[in-house]
Design a protein that fits this description.
about 280 residues; 5 helices; 19 strands; disordered N terminus
Length: about 280
Amino acid sequence: MPVGAYRVKFLHYHGGMVRWFLFPLVAVSAWAQTTGPAPSEAESRLRARVDKFYTLLQEGRTSVRSLRQAEALVAEDSKDAYYVARKPDIREFHISSVELIEGGQRAKVVVTAKVTVMMVGAGPQEFDAPVTSTWKLENGEWMFYMDPVTLGQTPFGKMYGETTGATGPPPDLAALMANKPNAASLQSKIKIDRSSVVLTPDAPVQFVTISNELSGSIDISMDDLSKRIPGLTVSLGASRVEGGKSTQVKLEAKPGVTVSGTVHLFVAPLGNEFDVQVKTQ
């Protein structure tokens, strides 16, 4: 996919409630997959739980019982938020990436789901939507949870609602609609300093910088394939980048190994996607 290609997503604010799913305007085709190392036992168990959870959500399109069964995979401190949150209309899904954090006690999982979204003037539309969910270990089991601190945080500022735990007045929706920015102009404020890197014996370690010129925070992630490019170690400096800040992606070649591959970086919730071509010389 060309550098700078992106998906456009909507953050829904409706009925005093912040929605916890982001949907794209344009479906983007996936790149070819390659075989990588087998996941760890912890990751395998997590993937099984995520698959079960989203399968129940998918079945929940026609069965309230399935949605209730999914509650068993929701952390106790997130059940209230889960009860009131609008459930997505998932047709299909697959797990795109898994990131274990905090010593393997928590995780971020990106699932690409085919969802139906009601759009003003266009009716129901079907899209491929990357959905980021957070998980934590409770009594040895992976549980889906909703972070009340970050739930309502967007690059445009804080969205207030019943599930965010935020205080203060709700946003002036009329003013927001009258002064809403162009999607492309918002995405242009997320910048990467280069799209290709050549690692040499004299410079086997190099960095790519992603800058956030928005007022609110963004989340940076990469897919599993980017972590498994032979001979290359990819490290993300900070997954959350506050407004006006930047983060670096570290690229390091192993000695004596020829590297050739593409690192795929994703920006949520705006949906920017950056491809960085990496090779050795």
